[in-house]
Every structure is written in structure tokens, then in C-alpha cells.
Amino acid sequence: MATVRVERAVKSFTREDGAEMRVLDGVSFEARESGITCLLGPSGCGKSTLLNAIAGLEKLDAGTIEFHGANASNPIAQLETGNPKLGYVFQDPRLLNWKRVEGNMIFAFKGMNVPRAEWQARLDKYIDLVGLTDFRRQYPLYLSGGMRQRVGLARALAIEPEVLLMDEPFSKLDQLTARKLRQDTLAICARLRQTAMLVTHDVEEAAYMGDRIVIFSARPARIVEVVDNPLPLAARDLDEADFIHFKKRLLNVVLKAIGQEDA
Description:
By secondary structure, the chain is of the alpha/beta class. It has a domain at 1-84 and 200-263: P-loop containing nucleotide triphosphate hydrolases (Rossmann fold), CATH 3.40.50. The protein contains seven helices and ten strands. The protein has helices spanning 47-55, 101-111, 119-129, 145-158, 175-192, 203-209, 241-262, and strands at residues 2-14, 20-31, 36-40, 62-69, 75-78, 86-89, 163-167, 195-200, 212-216, 223-228. The protein has a six-stranded mixed beta sheet, sandwiched between helices. A hairpin with a 5-residue loop joins strand 4 and strand 5 (75-78).
């Protein structure tokens, strides 16, 4: 696994009228190894842009993104090198509807040059891990939304990435399905000791999923506060007083940041 270090990230886009719109304005933080770091902030503030920059899908105007191996003091890779391995879970599963669950995962194996000798063991392991063993031969169109998102999670994990990136993967699911998938994803990441980053504008989701929560201002995004979750996994009960108190603390920081920007 790896840590991710973002230093003074700056990114702007050109609007249709030709004016420059700054999205990221000197963003710096570190996502720790073997934990979930949540990027929390209002919609449109640049969280997904930053995640795409980490994935190498966007290029920063200024600043750096470094990946460090376990207990390493020197970067193990820069984005331009194509390493380390990054798994990505999108808002939409982005599955190939003409391929079965197994076929979608094999497609990822081929793209990441996973040795063919490892395919079967990885299919068995990660399909079972997300609870889809009985549906491995099914086509995506015959699966529920939650099950399709589980396929997306299995596909991202099966390449065994150093860093798992998740861009609001539960936002399009109904409340009960999203709640169950959050529980399962949190348990899976803990079991695998997976370094992960999750984009969200849902304060409760950040309080529940995040071992570290990086709170963004409104656009142009700056870091308002970085909060380490004081609650261990076993204590993150949505209905318990300690969790509710922590959630309110995060909400107050976000609301204050939005108010400051509006002022």
C-alpha cells in the first residue's frame, strides 16, 4: 500500500466566455496508508477534479502529487510514470453490459497486465468479497444498482491497487442500499488494509467512512481543516451519541466554510 501526498495543488479551467475559473487553490494534505481518507466539501468545489488529478486523468497547473511506499521517505512514483496501481470506483459502475460479471473483471485484468495464471483466484476472491458469488455469470443489465456498484468495487480491488479511489460511489443508490454498501466497503477496506480515498459531500458518510476527513471550502477549493476520526470502526454507530456528536462537528466546519466563502 501507499500514502498519497498532495502539495500546493492548483487547477483552473477556461469557461465558455474565456474567463479563467480556478477550482483548486493551493491544496495540500496527506492520505495515510491503510485507511480511508474522505475528501468532504460542497458540490462543485473541486474534489472530483483533485481525485482525477491523483488518478492521472487531469493535469495540475501547479503543485505535486506523490506516492510513498510503506515507511518510505522517498516518493515511489509520480503520476507521469503510470505507477503505482490505482483502482477507481466511479459514481456510475461503468460496466460493459455485453460482458458478464467475470468478463468485466477480466477486462480490467487485461488492461492492467495481470498474469492469466492469477485470474481465477482473483475472480473467486474478490467476487466473494463483495457478496456476488451467485451472480458471477450474470450480465450487468440483470443486476440491481447496488449489485452493479459491487461489481465496480470488485473490479477495482481485483487489480490489487496500492490506492483505491472512490468518487461518490453510493450517491445514486437508495438509502438502505447505500447504507449496507458503505458498511461492507468499510469492512472490506479494513480487512485488506487498503489505502483509499473517497470523495463525498455527505457529512454523515464522511464521519462514518473516513479515518481522516479533509474538509474543503467552496470553489476555489482550499483546505479548511483536516480531522482524524476519533471513533474506531466498532464505535461508528449512526445512532450513537458519540457518532452524532462527531458528525455535527464536521457539519459545523463545512457550514462555517461555506458561510465564509459566501461572505
